[in-house]
Design a protein that fits this description.
There is one protein chain. The protein is mainly β and 114 residues long. It is built from no helices and eleven strands. β9 and β10 form a beta hairpin. The chain starts with a strand and ends with a strand. 29% of the residues are buried.
Length: 114
């Protein structure tokens, strides 16, 4: 199972980005999906998650600004990020569960300038 994250980049505060995470390899079903991020000098933290039954969860600081979604047919997970702030600057990682374990992508850099 391989995960390829894309869509990161440099954006001004208040701007938007849409991250994508495409899964490939021998995958029958993707269950839960999530986005995490890690800023320099900080621990990795959960940004948003989405279960196979459609239940979403997100960190308080991202509620109302970030939206996680999925396209099961394309085996792709998305993170729509709006009203970005400089403190959102981090490497964003996507994760999916299949075959009873979590799989992680390599991360995509998001930089928000003030």
């Amino acid at each position: 199972v391989q995960l390829q994250a894309s869509g990161g980049g440099l954006v001004q505060a208040g701007g938007s980005l849409r991250l994508s995470c495409a899964a490939s390899g021998r995958i029958n079903n993707i269950n839960d999906v999530t986005w995490h991020r890690q800023a320099p000098g900080k621990q990795r933290e959960m940004v948003a998650s989405l279960t196979s039954s459609g239940i979403t969860n997100s960190a308080d600081s991202e509620k109302g600004r970030f939206t996680i979604s999925r396209d099961n047919a394309k085996k792709t997970v998305y993170l729509e990020m709006n009203s970005l702030k400089p403190e959102d600057t981090a490497v964003y990682y996507c994760g999916v569960t299949t075959y009873g374990r979590w799989w992680w992508g390599q991360g995509t850099q998001v930089t928000v300038s003030s």
